[in-house]
Specification:
- The complex is a heterodimer.
- By secondary structure, chain A is of the alpha+beta class.
- Chain A is 48% helix and 10% strand.
- In chain A, α12 packs antiparallel against α16 and α14 runs antiparallel to α15.
- The N terminus of chain A is likely disordered.
- Chain B is an all-alpha fold.
- Chain B has 14 helices and no strands.
- Chain B has one domain: Up-down Bundle (Amino acid/polyamine transporter I).
- In chain B, α2 runs antiparallel to α8, α7 runs antiparallel to α12 and α12 packs across α13.
- Classes of the chains: A alpha+beta, B mainly alpha.
- At the A-B interface, α8, α17 and β12 of A face α6, α7 and α12 of B.
């Protein structure tokens, strides 16, 4: 019989908090869940057809049957080992299953096995062995890792594959899974791409848990939330979302989690995959997330209400939302004296303009509008170019191409020698090209200045996009002179104006401007003056500090106007 | 998403936006004709233009305050009834489209006369139209903010470069005579010689203003600043070129060209001035085109702006290529500019009066 909807039901159905878009989104997520269930069932069927165990099989009390199921599921996985022993020495039969990786991990697993072997008086309690073992472990006083029960074959296999140790006991219809995860990894070292002259020297590593710890040790408060999830059907990569509750905009946190939940892919080898899946405009050459390997950078971002995404297997952490200001500033700016930091920021700003526009402007002026060049300089330039057979566009293009090859080659050459060869190569090639009359000295100077300026940009991703844009502006200038130069630059600005990072305008800070109490584009204000968070990020708590400082107190005591 | 993140243009941003859309409008001012009509008083035209533009802007700002979050498409239908309101909005959107095309064509003329003499006009028009089409693909607020970002640069560099022409400035060339009192100025305005259209775009942008109650003041400030800038550049032009002003196609450019600063890092500022001018024209034709696309999209109810923008870009290209010579292009520009007294000032005045009348009627009831 058709059910008639009541008025309240109807209104409830129409009044989705997110509106029609939210309703559609929920429907989509529901459909995805249904699809995942169907895929799970199909996988079970396929496994059964191939003679393998159904991954949804529940474990039984018979140890031999359970071991046979595990063996079937991990067939041809020679790194999965099974060790047999008896609980309490003469108690029920048991088996420890784990993936052999590191000697240290074996030691932990041995500790588990030894503790279980030497448990005394394991009587079969009325509730069964499981409770007895639990009680025994808790009372033994031995250092045993955290453990939990798993009663499904798929869960057991998945846990073992992610590095945990499972203990199956005869007569117990579930496995005890011990957290003995210990994967190979390198120690915390200084970041490679974000070096600073003043500031912390530790950088992220490939293990997500260590990276979380590096952040947590700087913010040991429960308001710093860490939400763990696994992404990648086959890689099961742990991904953590970190944010500050009470500061971060809950809408943005929800949006990040929603986008992560939507990812349906096979493997996630590193953060770059996640970035491309969740950014607003993946086809844009501009990075819409800040990639950093510095924990202090992440901590500053979290305190501003931003969200960190940590992907296991990557020494880089994604910070969202990101604006162009975030990509062009260094955490070091706030460690040095404000005056010096302002000076360095100005230099960096000029450098990135020079990197992106220098070669293009040179081509436009020398090829089309020499009247704009001071006469004396023009005479010198023309005299130097007299023996060069190519037009300026080809000349500069060749040099830039050579520079790209040297740069790429230097990265691939192993060890410290790469950088040396890069410098020597550039010097020799530049000198030889000038002597051979292929290029004029001015072209070498322009290209070298642009390349060095490119390196002055803090963010590596942004450096890369500037290299691309540099070519675009160069070609436009070569074909249409100043018109091409100006229009190419304007198209770039238009594109950047249209970009957003999780809904936040990419150019925020420039347009729309932000309060000088939070930050300013070039001028670095003293830390004690920046008492607000950036309003446009929608922080729940706008004021981050009082403007108290020794200087402010002294001024007030003299009756001066407060500094802020 | 958070409301803060999607907030519209603030009062300061709105003022800069107005500056950005009016900045390139000086190109449509035909100084040679202005000089023929008013002689050395020609630069006074500009002050009058600034005043008229500021008044028109204030009226549009009043509409923004009365109808927050709405474009002319919605409030014109409320005030004048559906058919008339629709028609009026269509006229305004079409005007923005034509004004954009005229600006594209005049930009082409500047480029051909000062930068790329041998490049065919169609190629330059095509490039400009493609760039404006690309700009119109961006969210309307993002496009406005791009203009806001460029406006201070335009004002500083443009005025800086123009002021270098003071080297050859002769105060006697600009001494006011006012032989015909205000008659030549009014005559010039009626002829469309010295109008600066562009504010029509605001009819479609005012829906994206964050504080509508301050819109009138912001627009008036923006228009006033731009009026002053145009007046100063006209003053410099007439002061430098004097009686020979009517003999130049783009007198301001020739005035800047005449400046020569030997031994300095930048000996000639004409290149900087030209670059700034191209940027100003870009912000102007992109804003007008985006307004036209936004208006037509709302009028037709087509959900995708992309579908509307492509045919409109073709229309802009066709209109821009219609005049075969520079003088024909100038005539078309003057004809379009003449209408701006109606579209900028007239329509805004009518809408404000009707809104006022409706409000009083409501109170009476």
């Amino acid at each position: 019989m058709a059910r008639v909807m009541s008025g309240s039901e109807r209104s409830t159905r129409h009044e989705h908090p997110g509106g029609p878009a939210g309703q559609a989104r929920d429907l989509y997520l529901h459909a995805r869940r249904v699809r995942a269930d169907i895929e799970g069932l199909l996988a079970s069927l396929a496994a059964l057809e191939q003679g393998g165990p159904d991954p949804h099989t529940r474990l039984g009390p018979d140890l031999d049957r359970n071991l046979a199921l595990v063996q079937q599921a991990t067939d041809h996985c020679d790194d999965v080992v099974v060790r047999h022993f008896r609980i309490g020495g003469d108690g029920p039969r048991a088996a420890l299953i784990l993936v052999q990786t590191l000697p240290e991990k074996d030691l932990v697993a041995d500790a588990v096995m030894n503790t279980l072997t030497h448990l005394v008086r394991i009587g079969r309690a009325e509730t069964g062995y499981e409770d007895a073992i639990r009680a025994g472990l808790e009372q033994s006083g031995a250092t045993v890792p955290q453990f939990e029960a798993e009663d499904e074959l798929s869960g057991l296999v998945s846990d073992v594959m992610t590095g945990e140790a499972a203990v199956l006991v005869d007569g117990v219809p579930r496995a005890l899974v011990f957290d003995v995860k210990k994967w190979p990894g390198r120690d915390v070292t200084e970041p490679m791409a974000e070096t600073v002259t003043r500031g912390p020297r530790d950088g992220f590593v490939e293990q997500a848990l260590i990276n979380i710890a590096l952040i947590r040790q700087r913010m040991p408060v429960p308001d710093l939330k860490v939400r763990l999830t696994r992404i990648g059907r086959r890689s099961q990569t742990p991904v953590a979302v970190m944010y500050f509750q009470g500061i971060a905009d809950p809408d943005v946190v929800g949006e990040v989690q929603r986008r992560l939940a939507m990812i349906d892919t096979d493997i996630v080898p590193a953060d770059g995959y996640i970035e491309q899946f969740i950014e607003d405009r993946p086809m844009s050459p501009f990075p819409q997330m800040q990639v950093t390997e510095r924990p202090d950078n992440v901590v500053m971002g979290l305190a501003q209400g931003r969200i960190a995404i940590i992907v296991n297997g990557s020494p880089f952490v994604l910070l969202v939302p990101a604006t162009i200001h975030d990509l062009l500033t260094s955490p070091e700016d706030y460690y040095h004296r404000p005056g010096f930091s302002t000076y360095m920021r100005s230099i960096r700003s000029i450098a990135w303009l020079l990197a992106v526009a220098g070669p293009g402007l040179f081509i436009a002026l020398t090829s089309y509008h020499p009247q704009a060049i001071p006469t004396d300089l023009l005479i010198t330039l023309e005299a130097a170019r007299a023996s060069v057979p190519f037009p300026p566009l080809v000349e500069v293009g060749l040099m830039m191409f050579a520079m790209e090859i040297i740069r790429e080659g230097a990265i691939r050459i192993p060890g410290q020698i790469g950088a040396t060869i890069g410098i020597v190569g550039a010097l020799i090639m530049g000198q030889a090209a000038v002597q051979a009359g292929i290029v004029a000295p001015m072209a070498v100077i322009v290209v070298a200045a642009a390349t060095l300026s490119n390196y002055a940009v803090v963010n590596v991703e942004f450096q890369q996009v500037l290299r691309l844009v540099q070519w675009g502006i160069l070609l436009a200038s070569g074909v249409f002179g100043l018109l091409g130069f100006v229009l190419a630059g304007l198209v770039m600005v238009t594109h950047m104006a249209g970009l957003t990072s999780l809904g936040m305008p990419y150019l925020a800070g420039l347009v729309p401007p932000v309060s000088w109490r939070s930050r300013t584009p070039i001028i670095v204000r003293p830390v004690w003056e920046r008492k607000e968070r950036i309003r446009i990020r929608g922080p729940q708590e706008l004021i981050k500090q009082s403007h108290e400082s020794a200087y402010g107190e002294r001024r007030r005591s003299r009756g001066d106007r407060p500094p802020v | 998403m958070n409301q803060q993140r999607e907030r519209g243009l603030g009062p300061g941003e709105l003022a800069w936006f107005v500056i950005s859309i009016l900045a390139g409008g000086g190109l449509l001012v035909h100084m040679p004709d202005a000089y023929r009509i008013a002689g050395r008083d020609a630069w006074l035209f500009m002050a009058a233009v600034g005043l008229v533009t500021a008044v028109a802007g204030t009226l549009i700002g009043v509409l923004a305050r009365n109808f927050p979050g709405q474009t002319v498409v919605r409030f014109a239908q409320v005030l004048l009834g559906r058919p008339l309101g629709w028609l009026l909005s269509f006229v305004l959107a079409a005007y923005c489209l034509v004004a954009s095309a005229i600006t594209v064509r005049m930009t082409t003329e500047v480029v051909r006369s000062a930068l790329l003499a041998l490049t065919p006009a169609w190629l330059i028009v095509l490039i400009l139209v493609v760039t404006s089409w690309y700009a119109a693909q961006q969210p309307i607020l993002a496009m406005a903010r791009m203009n806001v970002m460029l406006a201070p640069l335009l004002l500083a560099l443009g005025m800086g470069a123009a002021l270098t022409a003071l080297e050859n400035f002769n105060p006697l060339h600009v001494r006011p005579v006012l032989t015909g009192h205000l008659v030549p100025i009014l005559e010039g305005m009626a002829m469309g010689t010295v109008q600066v259209p562009g504010l029509e775009a605001l009819y479609f942008f005012i829906a994206h203003v964050a504080q509508p109650q301050k819109a009138a003041r912001s627009i008036a400030v923006g228009a006033g600043v731009m009026g002053m800038a145009v007046t100063v550049s006209a003053l410099v032009t007439v002061g430098v070129l004097g009686a020979s002003t009517p003999h130049y196609t783009f007198p301001i450019l020739d005035a800047v060209k005449a400046a020569h600063l030997p031994g300095r890092l930048i000996e000639r500022t004409e290149t900087i001035f030209l670059m700034t001018w191209i940027v100003a024209l870009y912000t102007r034709y992109c804003a007008l085109f985006t307004a036209a696309v936004a208006g037509m999209t709302e009028l037709t109810g087509i959900p995708e702006r992309r579908l509307v923008s492509l045919p409109l870009a073709a229309v802009v290209a066709l209109i821009a290529l219609m005049p075969s010579t520079q003088s024909q292009a100038r005539s078309l520009a003057t004809a379009v500019t003449r209408l701006s007294l109606v579209t900028e000032l007239g329509i805004a005045l009518v809408l404000v009066l009707v809104a006022e009348w409706r409000a009083r009627e409501k109170v009476g009831k």
